[in-house]
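Notebook entry, structure prediction.
Reason for the run: the old model in the group folder had no record of what sequence produced it. Starting over properly, with the input documented here first.
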Amino acid sequence: MTTPMLVILAGWFASLFIGLPIWLAMALAGWIFLQVTGIPDLAVAQRIAKSVDSFPLLAAPLFILMGNIMNSSNITSRIFDFAKVCVGWMRGGLCHANIVASVFFAGTSGSAVADAGGLGTLEIKAMVDEGYSPDIAAALTASSATIGPIIPPSLPMIIYGVSAEASIGALFIAGVIPGLLMAGALMVMVRAIAVRLDLPRHPFPGFGDVWRAFTRAFWALLTPVILFAGLFGGAFTPTEAAAIAVAYALVLGLVIYRDLDVRALPRIILETVETTGVVLALVMAASLMAYCLSLSQVPQAAGAWLVGLTDSPLVYLMIVNIVLLVVGCFMEAIAAMLILVPILVPPALALGIDPIQFGLVFVLNLMIGTITPPVGVVLYVTAKVAGISFERVTRATLPFIVPLLVVLAAITLWPPLTTWLPKLVLGPTR
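New structure, fully documented this time:
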């Protein structure tokens, strides 16, 4: 069965370049394989239904709904204002505020696109109004948005956890240190650029203004604290945390801040359904493709070949980094994850690589892919918000990829950056 599968895969990759939707291309490739090999069509329906019959996967639409509610409740402006008074006094202050706000917002959205499209709209406008180049504003917003899926909650980590059968709670906790390292590395880069370009800064506003901004954003900033406390304390699972987060977001929007119009809820729910539909279409199509790959023995052959290349976990991680960085340039993150997890995870486990470390390496690689052409979805979002061309924002983003690669190298070379905190909180994860 290997040869037919390889031919079908070649046709699938070719179809991506003619603009066929990824989920449709995967579904067609899987169906064609089943027809060629004589497997009944009933297997398609069974495989698709089984792929979405998952309790952990239920967290995905709930976190998407929470992010949409937060975006519609004027919470982004409160978060950005607080970040601005905290770090706006530094050289290139709004650049630093952009990064810090992304860290705060990461604890509520879990999505790079949500960060870039929601908080990014406010950040880019503020930076351009103060005289920053639209190119820098869009590039930094895109780069800092990659922090969103690393600091929990995180939709990509949920997808990875379900696909790799890894602890989603441990993945969430493991993302805290790398996410903060990403923010720190980007701020170091911003500092160097700010000094070279003599970017402006605000005077320190005074502790009174800091306190007022903090109290204005307090309930929004409390969101990740509630989620972490519940997860750390064992009060609820990541899936239950998603439901609690939705309820809390509704309380913030309707009761505490009162910035959410009840009449907007049908629109918010519809947007959530649309986004969830896209995600689940990818999940179902990729599950069918993974089933066909398993029958064809392609993952086993690929895994054996990769393991045969080296018996060193570090070398294997380096190979995976290169593969994922290249794949991230051409494929949407969740689709790439669903296809490659069954291929790349088994050899990693065979080599003794911690599944939590591997998950963070996997997700960070693909998040960097969201800001690299030609399929850099976050770049498209920020280019549209800033009103500049995709080519301009791509060129401006290149320097900011360097600090992200430094963090990727750090978590690859030193596993405790991703494994220490989950073990401290949850104990051994395997």
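Summary: The chain has one domain: 55-426.
The old model has been moved to the deprecated folder.
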